[in-house]
Amino acid sequence: MKSAEREQKQSLAKILFLQGMLCKDISEKIGVSTNTISKWSVAGSWQEERAARTITRPQLVMKMLQELDKKITDGDWKPQDVAMVAAAISKLDKQTNVVTVIEVFTKYQGWLAKRAEIDPDLDADFLKKTYHYQDKFINEQMSNTAIN
Asked: Is residue 19 part of a domain?
């Protein structure tokens, strides 16, 4: 397989993986082995990226509160633990717009991936460019370097 073809298949595989598709299904769809998809996934930290994209604000808050509750139950807590969790939740509230954007982009990407199955205008290059600029937008929003 040529380098350009491999890159294109790898990009498409990543897009499909981030949408929640199984390695086996991705492998069948793009014509590479499941082992190759798995290797690409590990090398590119796709699992971590998928987790970061799919966790919602309520789930994150719940996890923080559960961790605090565990510390309190175990008797291994300090007053600053409560303050730290409260500050983290407050910070999340300020970033809700970014979280909302990520959730909307994730749904939109899922829609595009499904739509690409029936719409010939939605080729791999278009999807790759769209996801690239969505990622750029999210990263800029999170680092407060957005172009206004």
From this structure: yes
DSSP code string of 11-64: HHHHHHHHTT--HHHHHHHHTS-HHHHHHHHHHTTHHHHHHHHH--HHHHHHHH
pLDDT digits (tens, 9 = 90+) for 69-89: 888 888 888 878 888 888 877
pTM check: above 0.70: no
Answer yes or no: do 46 and 101 share one domain: yes
**Measured between alpha carbons, how far is 9 from 5 in angstroms, rounded to an integer?**
6
Residue 148 counted as domain residue: no
Residues 7 and 50 in one domain: yes
Evaluated on CA atoms 101, 102, 105, 111, the torsion sign reads: negative
User: Mapping DSSP to helix (H, G, I), strand (E, B) and coil, where does residue 123 land?
Assistant: coil
pLDDT (0 to 100) of residue 99 = 66
| 32-to-20, 21, 40 alpha-carbon distances in Å | 18, 15, 11
| CA 31, chain centre distance (Å) | 24
From the list 8, 118, 32, the residue with the least C-alpha distance to 24 is 32
What amino acid is encoded at 63 in this protein? Answer: K
Does one domain contain both 49 and 111? yes
111, 132: one domain: yes
